[in-house]
Amino acid sequence: MKPPVAIRSADYLVVESTYGDRLHKEDNPFDQIGGIIRNTAARGGTVVIPAFAVGRTQSILYYLHELKKAKAIPDLPVFLDSPMAINVTELLHRHGTEHRLAKNLCADVCHVAKYSRTVDESKALDHSNGLPSVIISASGMATGGRVLHHLKHFVGDPKNAIVFTGYQAAGTRGARLVHGDDEIKIHGKMWPVRAQIDVLHNLSAHADYREILDWLGNFDAPPKRTFVTHGEPEAASSLAMKIEDRLGWQVS
Predict the structure, then answer these.
(1) In whole angstroms, how far apart are CA 227 and each of 153, 179, 235, 242, 252?
(2) Which stretches within the chain are classed as H helix?
(3) How far is it, in rounded angstroms, from Cα 83 to Cα 80?
(4) Eight-class DSSP state of 95
C-alpha cells in the first residue's frame, strides 16, 4: 500500500493503539511463510490460513505469488475460500491507482489462488485426496465463517499447519489456538488440536508505537486533545504515556 499521508494539523485527534506497547518483529515474512509451507508440504499436509478478508488476504496472496515465482515453495494449489475476500481481491485489481502494485503484477497476484465461491466448492477443499495445498479463508481470528469447517477437518492431524496472520483478541478461537490449547470448541463439539500452530507477527496492518509516534511528529502544532482508542488497556495506556512523554500533548 501507499504510505500514510502526513497530517499537519487537527483540532482533535483519535488514534488507535493496537500495538501501542510493542514493535513489529524484524522477521522477513517471505522466510517464515516459505518455511512453513515447505515443511508442511514435505509432510504431505495442508496449510490453513485464517485471514482477515480486507487487506490481510491480499498481502498473503502477494507473498505466495512471490514465493512461487522464486521457486521458494512447491507449486502446490492455493485456494481462496471467502466470498468477501474474493470480492476485495477483485477490487484491488480494479483500483490499481490506489496501491503500488503494477497492473500486470497485481493481476498475477490476484490469480495465484483458485477462488471457491460456492458452498459446494468450499466443502470440496476438505476432501482433496490428501494432496498438499494452501487454503486461505475467513475469519482471521477463527470466530466464524468458512474457516471453521476447514479447522474441524485439518486441526486434528499433525501433518497440517494452521497459520494465523495477525493479532488474536482475547477469548477468540485464534487466541486459544495460538496460546497452545490442546482442544478447541467448534459448532458445539470439542476437536483435538494436533496440527502445527503458527502466527505471523509481522504482517499486521496496524502501526507499532514507533510508527505512530513518527506519524504524530508531522504535526505543526498539537491537537487540543488526543484520544487513544482501539487497543487493549495496557497497550492504550502505554501509547498515551509515550505521546505525553515524547510530544507533551494532552491525551485521554
Answers:
(1) 44, 31, 13, 13, 5
(2) 29-42, 56-69, 83-94, 103-110, 119-124, 147-154, 173-178, 209-216, 233-247
(3) 9
(4) -
What are the residues whose beta carbons fall under 8 Å from the beta carbon of 239, sequence distance 6 or more?
A: 15, 17, 20, 21, 209, 212, 228, 231
* 181-208 pLDDT tens trace: 999 999 999 999 999 999 997 888 889 9
Q: How far apart are CA 55 and CA 189, in angstroms?
A: 31
Q: Which residues of 121-158 are buried (b: 16+ CB within 10 A; e: fewer)?
A: ebeebeeeeeebbbbbbbbbbbbebbbbbbbebbbebe
Give the whole-angstrom CA distance, residue 66 versus residue 62: 6
Give the DSSP letter string of 237-248: HHHHHHHHHHH-
Amino acid at 8: R
Q: What is the pLDDT of residue 130?
A: 76
Please give the C-alpha separations between residue 26 and each of 29, 32, 198, 226, in angstroms, as whole numbers. 9, 11, 17, 29
Alpha-carbon distance of 158 to 120, in angstroms, equals 26
Q: Tell me the three-class secondary structure of 173-209, residue by residue.
A: HHHHHHCCCCEEEECCEEEECCCEEEECCCCCCCCEH
Contact criterion met (CB below 8 Å) for 215 and 4: yes
The three grid cell numbers given for residue 224, joined into one nine-digit string: 487540543
